[in-house]
Amino acid sequence: WQRTCILSLFLLCAGMGQAIAVHAGQSWRQFGRRWLQIAVCAALVSAGSATMFPNSWIYFGVLHGMAVMLVLCRLTAHWGRWLWLLGAVPIALDALMPTLHGAVPALAVFDLKALSWLGLVSHKPITEDFVPLLPWMGVMWWGMALGQWGVARGWHQWRLPTGGPLSAVLPRLAFIGRWSLSWYMLHQPLLIGLLTAWVALRR
């Protein structure tokens, strides 16, 4: 449940960010430059995990999923309120998959690694991180819908408050948010390195 909540918030914010970017007039070229950064980081995650966990390496984790979902999200950005319904489809379909697999044995083909990234699986594959399109595409679509709803109400025009106890804290949090991909890529090697060093020193 903790992972589900964290990942849901992660993808919800990514969808909201796309809503703000589209509203601000972000071009496909600008989008592509950011998308390429995510795709390269996804490849690095796969390479690093294959070194550490050769039997359960990450072939479609959160960054891989985001790379695909962001493109779909961008292509459907003009759907407006229909994004709420669109987001409900993969979430509902994911809940039905155990029943569908029991009724239609041929669906077992989606358990193959080449197709498992779609999320139409009967069980989670052996991998350190797995974020398929179902149900997570639905969460990002809901993030896009929520972001568009917020933009229509001026959320994107909010400014950090000046004065008071929060004025010293919020700018630092905003800095972290502006470099979220960098922090994401650094936190795992840093934590694993510190834990490895701690174990080595205890021996």
Would you mind describing this structure in some detail?
The model has no long low-confidence stretch (mean pLDDT 91). The protein has helices at 2-23, 28-52, 62-75, 82-103, 113-116, 133-152, 170-178, 180-202. It is globular and about 60 Å long. It is 68% helix and 0% strand. Helix 1 packs parallel to helix 3, helix 1 (2-23) packs across helix 6 and helix 4 (82-103) runs antiparallel to helix 6 (133-152). By secondary structure, the protein is mainly α.
Shape: globular
- What is the terminal-to-terminal distance? 34 Å
Helix fraction, binned, reads: 55-70%
Task: Output mean pLDDT.
Answer: 91
Report on the biggest sheet: none
Radius of gyration: 19 Å
Order of helices and strands: HHHHHHHH
Beta strand %: under 5%
Task: Give the low-pLDDT segments.
Answer: none
* Helix vs. strand class: mainly alpha
Helical run tally: 8
DSSP strand count: 0
Topology (SSEs and partners):
Elements: H1 2-23, H2 28-52, H3 62-75, H4 82-103, H5 113-116, H6 133-152, H7 170-178, H8 180-202
Helix pairs in contact: 1-3, 1-6, 2-3, 3-6, 4-6
